[in-house]
Design brief:
It comes from Actinacidiphila alni. This protein has 292 residues and is an alpha/beta fold. It is built from 9 helices and 13 strands. Helix 1 crosses helix 2 and helix 2 packs across helix 3. The termini are far apart.
Amino acid sequence: MSVMDLDLRRVRYFVAVAEECSFVRAASRLYMTQPALSRQIRALEEDLGVALFLRDRQGTLLTRAGRQFLEDARPLLATSLAAQQRVRAAGREDNNFTVGFMPGVAVTPILREFSRTAPDVRVEVLHTSVTDQVDYLLDGRVDVCFVRMPLPSGMFEVIPLFPEPRVAALSSGHPLAERKAVSLHELRDLALLQDLGDVPEWRGRVSVASPADSGRFPVTIEECLEAVASGAGCYVMAAGMAGFYRRDDVTYLTLEDVAPRMVALAYSKHRTMPELHRFAEISRRMLGPAAD
């Protein structure tokens, strides 16, 4: 198999598992479910024709082939990323500026103010999500991105903006749906429709217990909400996203005992565009603590 045949996304997944020595921690770091990550690693092992990990009760260890592949994978990913960034930068007009955004973050006033102060810059926007926000930043599709923390440490300049409460999505037919707020303890009899890494405070049931189970977690927000509406369980999400995904058969309740997540602005530490600092300053002024 040649290097050109490799799926670089799977290579990145492999490096995460190798660095964490755990599929659970790597899945949390990559914002994936553990079963989905396991499938991707198995597919990579099939492509390469070798086992990369030894999995047992003691943990996840690299095989000899895995150690060799890790040594080669890191520079391969770095070279690929650098090439993508150079090509994207060369192919774009000098006055283009691309902003990544996600539901629940009010970016329109910021974009309007930025365009007013930089009339010579052509502003474009791209929709992102928590699961792909890192990819958009790394491969250069966006110059700057509104993100929900956490992000991998050491890779980005991060400007914290505001803490965002989290809510529980329940079927509108659930007895608790008439409430405005609820605690996790009160939801313990419901199944959590996501990985425990998303809600470390959870002490109740989880819909899928292990990668060996035949079922799977819903992947997209839409799938999660369909499962909630059908009464399969509950789903914890950012309050801003709840406002975007309104539907009659799902009710959102404020969670009283779950820590908020920080909404921030992020861009690659290697970017030097002057527009970045101007955009960051406007974002901080309009959404940061000083805006309260």
